[in-house]
């Protein structure tokens, strides 16, 4: 299973669309088997969920995310975990242990991109 984390360096980004990159982890039997960083190709409405879905991502982890992106992920049967913070790899390990749950932190206003996940 592929799990992507929206990142700013090694940390979970607080706004999905404005992250520097996505850290895409391959997992098997509850363990990380590989990981690669993929640059964010740009924030355009509706593009990133399909970009990640086409890569075979089954789960996306982020601090905050807009409702439109969440809807597209849901339509593609990709699990959305929002409200995450801290180290990206640790977030995936917590998810695999069943310890990381979505808080439902939905961003409604792009003017506060640096604050998403904190409300």
TrEMBL record:
Residues 10-96 form the Dinitrogenase iron-molybdenum cofactor biosynthesis domain. InterPro entries: Di-Nase_FeMo-co_biosynth (IPR003731), DiNase_FeMo-co_biosyn_sf (IPR036105), MTH1175_dom (IPR033913). CDD domains: MTH1175. This is Dinitrogenase iron-molybdenum cofactor. It comes from Anaerotignum neopropionicum.
């Amino acid at each position: 299973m592929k799990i992507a984390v929206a990142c700013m360096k090694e940390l979970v980004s607080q706004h999905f669309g404005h992250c520097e990159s996505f850290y895409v982890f391959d997992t098997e039997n509850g363990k990380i088997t590989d990981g690669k960083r993929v640059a964010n190709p740009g924030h355009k409405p509706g593009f990133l969920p399909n970009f990640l879905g086409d890569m075979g991502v089954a789960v996306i982890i982020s601090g905050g995310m807009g409702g439109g992106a969440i809807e597209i992920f849901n339509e593609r049967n990709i699990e959305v975990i929002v409200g995450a913070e801290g180290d990206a790899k640790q977030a995936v390990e917590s998810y695999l242990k069943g310890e990381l749950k979505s808080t439902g932190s939905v961003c409604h206003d792009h003017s506060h991109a640096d604050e998403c996940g904190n409300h």
